[in-house]
Write a structure and sequence with these properties.
Elements: H1 10-18, E1 35-38, E2 49-51, E3 70-76, H2 84-97, E4 98-109, H3 114-117, H4 130-136, E5 150-158, E6 166-173
Parallel strand pairs: 1-2, 1-3, 3-4
Antiparallel strand pairs: 4-6, 5-6
């Protein structure tokens, strides 16, 4: 029988109870990193540059950064508002500007949660397999790219009750 340290945080309790280690959540490299907040609206997050329609940026458009110059992208309740084409175009742009090892921290409603369906502006729905299917499946036809430089580093379905379950996902830019 393996002995565990006394769990004191919720995720430590999960790991001990389920006998399963969670993947590591990557931390930002430093405080002087370049970080952006996509679809920020009125949710401003310190040390990030906000981008949204009210500030003149539309999903899929080029962002004002050099190739491989951004460390962190935050996209909280943003991707579900995009069309498939806008999502793919936005991810390609993020792939361009993120440094290798840079991350996208995303929160999207889980497809089974009420919050995924209550907003008429939601166009896409996400399961725990959506990102892996997009980045790694080779069965898509020519309408879906297959050559992504992304992988899912961490993903967790989380919520206080079923109606507000979300996917907390960290997508990592590879070399």
């Amino acid at each position: 029988m393996a002995e565990h340290p006394l769990p004191h945080l919720p995720l430590q309790n999960f790991e001990v109870a389920m006998d399963r280690r969670l993947p590591a959540w990557l931390l930002p490299p430093s405080l002087d990193m370049v970080a952006i907040n996509l679809g920020s609206g009125n949710k401003e997050i310190g040390a990030t540059t906000p981008f949204d329609a009210d500030r003149g940026w539309w999903a899929g458009e080029q962002l004002p950064f050099e190739d491989e110059s951004v460390d962190l992208v935050i996209a909280y309740h943003f991707f579900e508002h995009l069309t498939k084409v806008d999502l793919l175009d936005t991810l390609r742009e993020l792939e361009r500007i993120l440094k290798p090892g840079g991350v996208i921290n995303s929160v999207t409603p889980h497809w089974s949660a009420e919050i995924a369906h209550q907003d008429l502006d939601h166009k896409l729905f996400f399961t725990e397999q959506t990102w892996n299917n997009l980045f790694h499946n080779d069965y898509y036809d020519g309408t879906m790219p297959r050559d992504w430089m992304f992988h899912v580093g961490f993903q967790l379905i989380i919520g206080l009750v079923q109606r507000n379950l979300v996917l907390l996902t960290q997508i990592v830019r590879t070399d």
